[in-house]
Amino acid sequence: MADDLAALAPKALRTLLDETMFGAKPNWSFVINAGEPGLIATLKGLTAAQASQQPGAGRKPIVSHANHVLYGYELINRAVAGDAKAFTEADWTVAWKLEHVTDAEWSTLLERLETQGRKILALAETIPSGIDEIMLTGLFGSAAHNAYHLGAIRQILRDLENPA
Question: Given its phi and psi angles, is residue 28 left (phi above 0), alpha (psi -120 to 50 degrees) or beta?
């Protein structure tokens, strides 16, 4: 039984990450509604101007959310590559400081986000034996983190379309 679960874990992780990054399958889903785009797919449909638009006083624009998620992906990939200090020396406040991008900067950010996300998906294919419980939990948590920011971005888009 334990061996069966161990064999299923990489598939389950990949399914959740793929869904929250790139979108749910048309007929079924686990985290977001069936057929809906995931975080990266949603971001790719936005212009730099949309991503940079201020949603309201004290709120961060979409580009800040995207940069924050990118920062997390990069930390995961650094940690898996052996950087033991990736998370302990992380400064999450830096990721939230980006609030405006040009078209070229937005394109580069999206490329980096997709590249880092695909590295995590590849990692999920066969979870390396050196990954401990904390790192594995963090990888599963990334799917929830993606879903949270996808929801926040969808709310920002609604608010921008229909300001109070």
Answer: beta
Q: With contact defined as beta carbons under 8 Å apart, do 52 and 65 qualify?
A: no
* pLDDT reported for residue 1: 54
* 73: Cα separation from own chain's centroid: 7
pTM for the complete prediction? 0.92
Q: Are 3 and 18 in contact (CB under 8 A)?
A: no
Q: What is the mean pLDDT of residues 123-144?
A: 83
Confidence of residue 154 (pLDDT cuts 50, 70, 90): very high
**Cα–Cα distance between 109 and 101 in angstroms, integer?**
9
**Given pLDDT bands bounded at 50, 70 and 90, which one contains residue 49?**
very high
Domains in the chain: boundaries = 2-161
Q: How far apart are CA 140 and CA 133, in angstroms?
A: 11
Among the listed residues 114, 95, 99, the one whose alpha carbon sits nearest the alpha carbon of residue 41: 114
**Residue 161 and residue 55: Cα distance in Å, rounded?**
10
What's the CATH code, domain 2-161?
1.20.120
